[in-house]
Amino acid sequence: MSLRIDEDHGRFKQIVRGRIRKNLRQYISQGELIGKQGKDVVSIPIPQIDIPKFRYGDKQKGGVGQGDGDEGDPVGGDPQPGDGQGEAGKDAGQHVLEVDVTLDELAEILGEELELPNIENRGKSKVIDQKDRYVGIRRVGPSSLRHFKRTYKAALRRQIVMGGYDPSNPIVIPTRDDMRFRSWKTEEEPIANAVIIYMMDVSGSMGDEQKEIVRIESFWLDAWLQRQYKGVETRFIIHDAVAREVDRETFFRTRESGGTMISSAYKLAAQMIDSDYPASEWNIYPFHFSDGDNWSVDDTLVCIDLMKKTLLPASNVFCYGQVESPYGSGQFIKDLREHLKDDDRLITSEIRDRDAIVGSIRDFLGKGK
Q1: Measured distance CA(236)–CA(246) in Å, rounded
Q2: Residue 234 CB contacts under 8 Å (≥ 6 apart), including other chains
Q3: Which domains occur in the chain, in start order?
Q4: What pTM did the predictor assign?
Q5: 105 pLDDT exceeds 90?
Q6: What is the Cα–Cα distance from 27 to 32, expressed in whole angstroms?
Q7: Helices (DSSP H) in the chain: which residue ranges?
Q8: Dihedral sign for Cα atoms in the order 8, 12, 17, 18
């Protein structure tokens, strides 16, 4: 019976997986999964899955297969007229079931649907951290690990058993045999070996819709990279004429104005990599999103120089996504493609609207680097 239930559950999971794949592009473009994200799982609305169930009639009308009626008549007697308002419709009702899917499963479905290759790790997954964890009590050990409560209880128990405890004079003196010490075990844990550095232009030309596109795309980029590595750190940089590091919420909610100097973000990212993420130990993924406006040609040339000397050599890939805006010139992506056309570590993608997010994800992750 248990085996049969497992088989049925497995078939149901495959049905759910198929429905998610069928509607994945819709989920990605609309961003409806992000608001349903928990700590480790995402609740996904799956339409058009009918769950089989029994429907019982009135117990007073006989047992199974008994009572009045002909073959084909509905169980439970004639249907009663409803008291709702309006005319009857001709379309089927919408049956929606919410299922919980882990982020790892979601990333796997994303990879299958977009035919993404597994990323070639640069060998930094061997970086480990040693951590001591207390696992029990033992009779020997250094004085610094003495467990005073357990030692006192052992001494008290011994004195009571031997009749040496006087409640009117409750003095408990531990002996060497009463001593108890904490025991520990050293565990080796893999530490984060990949970092994603998100950079975004927050000048006035990057409106709410452009930032929502970046938010949706970063959710799926995170999901895939988390599946590829044992640990991923995420850093966020916003910039207009000046760059600064912020948290995730500020990254997607800040709206500023003023000029745009993209080099300010690239300089901050380079400093971050140099101080915290040596390229010999980390898989580094900078993602920059902008509408393509920059302050001047001179600043663009500074960006190109930073890319050539610092950012590209340190990165697995450097991904630039240009979000279409009615106020942006779109020139920056052209300059990158002109000056760095022979460097395959640079990946550029034009994101016209939400429907282009799927293609942009494939552009960024499709090389498996």
Answers
A1: 6
A2: 195, 196, 198, 222, 248
A3: 1-51+95-115 (no CATH), 128-188 (no CATH), 192-365 (3.40.50.410)
A4: 0.64
A5: no
A6: 6
A7: 2-30, 103-114, 148-161, 208-228, 248-253, 262-276, 297-306, 312-314, 331-339, 357-365
A8: positive
